[in-house]
Design a protein that fits this description.
The chain is mainly alpha-helical and about 230 residues long. About 50% of the residues lie in helices and about 10% in strands. It folds into two domains: about 20-85, Fe,Mn superoxide dismutase (SOD) domain (Helix Hairpins), CATH 1.10.287; about 95-195, 3-Layer(bab) Sandwich (minor pseudopilin epsh fold), CATH 3.55.40.
Length: about 230
């Protein structure tokens, strides 16, 4: 069964951009519910020992909307937690060069990222991705993600569902996006993903399903960032 990965930072580490209350609610309740429902539905579909990435793609292929929505949301949230850091930094190296080529400069990228997220109607996700045409910003609706989009490799994502920001920003999605991309975006993670997209190292994968339902084994499960990216 799939575990709820631990955060690699404290619940208050991202304040004031994201409060401890938001992280407790978002991670411990929303993400947990998606993982639990995925385990239930994956068992019914005979996919309990498959990697979550395979479960998402297989659910989409078979038209199993319930499994797809829950499995993709479980994966998206895990990627989202890795897309944030308490350290604070700016893009550098190959990532900065790629962003400058694609958007003109970092500020122009941030403006496009905020605009894409702000103008996305309803719930979803805003992504920085790479592909044959270089870097670009896209948004996906509800649980939709990059796992089922040929030619796209995710570097960074921000959650556009209201539970990601409503406790802290009410309905001001723009203020949330500006603070998020300006203060907590994890550029080191994005640079590792960019390198992986070019065959240098391994990209993000969700922690492999546990072999059994032993609570002791689940307690020993590491945080996402502690797992090799395979």
């Amino acid at each position: 069964m799939f575990i709820l990965p631990k955060l690699t930072y404290g619940y208050a580490a991202l304040e004031p951009t994201m409060s401890a209350d938001t992280l407790h609610t978002h991670h411990d309740k929303h993400h947990k519910a998606y993982v639990e429902k995925t385990n239930e539905l994956a068992a019914q579909a005979g996919l309990t020992e498959r990697p979550l990435e395979d479960v998402v793609r297989e659910a989409q292929r078979k038209g199993d909307a319930k499994l797809f929505h829950n499995a993709a949301q479980a994966w998206n949230h895990a990627f989202f937690w890795q897309s944030m850091t308490a350290k604070g930094a700016t893009p550098s190296g190959a990532l900065k060069a790629a962003m400058t080529k694609a958007f003109g400069d970092i500020d122009a990228f941030k403006d496009e990222f905020v605009d894409e997220g702000l103008n996305h109607f309803g719930s979803g996700w805003v992504w920085l991705v790479t592909g044959s045409g270089g870097l670009k910003v896209i948004s996906t609706h509800d649980a939709d993600d990059t796992l089922i989009k040929d030619g796209l490799f995710p570097l960074l994502v921000c959650d556009l569902w209201e539970h990601a920001y409503y406790l802290d920003y009410k309905n001001d999605r723009k203020a949330f996006l500006e603070a998020w991309i300006g203060k907590v975006a994890n550029w080191d993670f994005a640079e590792r993903q960019l390198a992986a997209s070019e065959g240098q190292g391994d990209g993000f994968r969700y922690p492999a399903p546990a072999a059994n339902d032993d609570p002791a084994e689940r307690r020993k499960a590491p945080a996402i960032g502690d797992r090799p990216r395979v």
